[in-house]
Specification:
By secondary structure, the chain is α/β, with parallel strands linked by helices. It is built from 21 helices and 17 strands. It has helices spanning 24-41, 45-53, 59-66, 126-142, 161-176, 197-201, 219-226, 232-236, 238-245, 255-267, 293-296, 307-314, 359-374, 392-396, 399-412, 427-432, 456-463, 465-470, 474-489, 494-497, 510-520; strands spanning 73-75, 98-105, 108-115, 146-150, 183-187, 190-192, 204-208, 213-215, 250-252, 320-323, 331-338, 341-348, 379-385, 417-426, 442-445, 450-452, 503-504. Strands 10, 11, 12, 13, 14, 15, 16 and 17 form an eight-stranded mixed beta sheet that branches. It is elongated, with a radius of gyration of 29 Å.
């Protein structure tokens, strides 16, 4: 007897499901397809036109640009809020103003949520928040990056404290996933009040010029409280946060280029903290000589040059992604590849304030070092630093504790670390820039390096102050003593003779030597002491 014919099956026997009535399930499927189509179309054509009129894409248009074509899987597209009062019971649109799901970016799984400004202005309510909570939990469980496409009016006022509690759940997950999975925030419209704290807790923040604004209190409140008059863009626009506050890591001209940059960044990051960054084949020979460096960098330590040109010469195909390029420009932080392997580059920038370390540069580099260490990205540190910036503003602004952040980040980092000293490396700034004494694995130097407590002129003025003052010709005496000090303590092999530099190399060998050192260190394992967490400087 066949399974279909069996009317009294034995226990455990598989039975066939009775066929549905003709057309019944097909009708249901057609209803579902029509409903999905309406949901994906948004609240109305008029709302979509209004969004486009502001120079902004819709949530689903953004999703389509972020993910590989046809790979996005949406969840909870039929979710609706259950709030009442203030007319909410009569307005229960599907999605509740946020699109959530996952897809592929360059073939790798990525999660994303996108506020839909057409629905409640993208404001966050209870159901809206729960969708994001679920997505963040899924990203954590799957061990995959999450991208937030932010375009919302903050908390949904009609839902009161439940909306605020929704933000708390997002913040908690931001912190729990910090250093576990990459978290990226893309600001594409307003992001005000408590909503701004989630991007601040993520690893990278992108903003689009002209449409994105992010602030705790808007211009009207600022004027009412302080009397200062300022526009939305000047207060919290992309350029303000990219060059003044340092909140934004990237400022982009339009949404298309912004989302393409997000895709590029994701291609350089591992899926989570248990994986290495994705390698990529490179046609740039590992042993390529970098002869151009001999002309790019002046031997005179007082002459400026652009460190970006050095990085471009060293890395694969001259391609790198600079982080926070408009803020704290006296230091350069970038992601690049060497022989196909992702590296993080930290470099003093002699063309901006002579490359000194100050409060902002220390903070910028410390955060970048910490991010690279979180996601198993080896560090290459290019040193050409005259010291920390002196001044009352710097001292009273806390240069001691801010500089200590960079020191802490390097000392705490367990990824492979290679230091290269190009020219000057003076004082405490030399130590902080991943010196041998704080744990760099390999320290290399060019024959133009000068490692010392301070420059020869300053050192001579301190050490030989009395002798210079008593001399018949102080200027001639000072010049002679400066020359003697430099010859005795600042020659390029002084640190190498004492084991503080592992090798003095020809600049034209730089790329090959860096790649060789990083290859040797690829399996590095450096466990930290058992502890709940460190208490890093604030």
């Amino acid at each position: 007897m066949s399974v279909v014919e069996e009317t009294h099956p034995r226990p455990g026997t598989r039975t066939a499901t009775p066929p549905p009535q003709d057309g019944c399930l097909r009708d249901r499927a057609a209803e579902l397809a029509a409903l999905r189509e309406r949901v994906r179309g948004g609240p109305s054509d008029r709302a979509t036109e209004a969004q486009h009129a502001k120079g902004k894409l819709t949530a689903r248009e953004r999703i389509a640009l972020l993910f590989d074509e046809g790979t996005f899987s949406e969840i909870e597209e039929l979710r609706r809020h259950r709030a009442t009062g203030f007319g909410l019971e009569d307005r229960r649109p599907h999605t509740d103003g946020v699109v959530t799901g996952w897809g592929k970016v360059h073939g790798r799984t990525v999660f994303a949520y996108a506020h839909d400004f057409r629905i409640f202005g993208g404001a966050l309510g209870e159901a809206h928040a729960e969708k994001i909570h679920k997505l963040m939990d899924l990203a954590e469980a799957a061990g995959a990056p999450i991208v937030g496409l932010c375009d919302g009016a903050g908390a949904r006022i009609q839902e009161g404290v439940t909306a605020l509690a929704g933000y708390g759940g997002i913040f908690t997950r931001n912190v729990r996933n910090s250093g576990v999975i990459p978290q990226i925030s893309v600001i594409l419209g307003p992001c005000a009040g408590g909503a701004a704290y989630s991007p601040a807790l993520t690893d990278f923040v992108f903003m689009v010029r002209g449409t994105a604004q992010m602030f705790i209190t808007g211009p009207d409140v600022v004027q009412a409280v302080t009397g200062e008059v300022i526009t939305h863009d000047a207060l919290g626009g992309a350029d303000a946060h990219a060059s003044v506050s340092g909140v934004a890591h990237f400022a982009c001209d339009d949404e298309e280029s912004c989302l393409e940059d997000v895709r590029h960044l994701l291609s350089l990051l591992p899926a989570n903290n248990r994986e290495l960054p994705p390698a990529a084949p490179s046609d740039d020979p590992a042993d390529r000589r970098t002869e151009a460096l001999l002309d790019l960098v002046p031997a005179d330590p007082g002459r400026a040059y652009d460190m970006r040109a050095v990085i471009e010469e060293i890395v694969d195909d001259g391609d790198y992604l600079e982080i926070q390029e408009s803020w704290a420009t006296n230091i350069v932080c970038a992601l690049a590849r060497l022989d196909g392997q992702v590296v993080g580059v930290v470099a003093n920038q002699p063309s901006a304030f002579a490359g000194v370390l100050d409060i902002h540069a220390s903070e910028k580099a410390a955060r970048f070092v910490q991010t690279c260490d979180s996601f198993n990205i080896p560090l290459v540190t290019l040193v050409d630093v005259p010291g920390f910036l002196p001044g009352v503003d710097q001292e009273h602004g806390g240069i001691i504790r801010h500089g200590a952040k960079l020191l802490y980040a390097y000392c705490n980092a367990t990824v492979p670390r290679v230091q290269l000293i190009l020219r000057k490396a003076y004082g405490g700034a030399y130590i902080v820039m991943d010196s041998r004494s704080i744990g760099t694995d390999v320290s290399l130097a060019w024959p133009s390096n000068e490692i010392a407590v301070m420059g020869a002129e300053g050192a001579a003025n301190v050490v030989f102050r009395r002798e210079i003052a008593a001399a018949a010709d102080p200027d001639a005496t000072r010049a002679r003593l400066v020359k003697e000090y430099r010859a005795e303590l600042m020659h390029p092999y002084y640190a190498a003779e004492r084991g503080l530099v592992d090798s003095v190399i020809d600049p034209s060998e730089t790329r090959a030597r860096l790649i060789d050192a990083l290859s040797m260190l690829r399996a590095k394992h450096a466990p930290l002491p058992s502890r709940k967490h460190g208490n890093q400087p604030q």
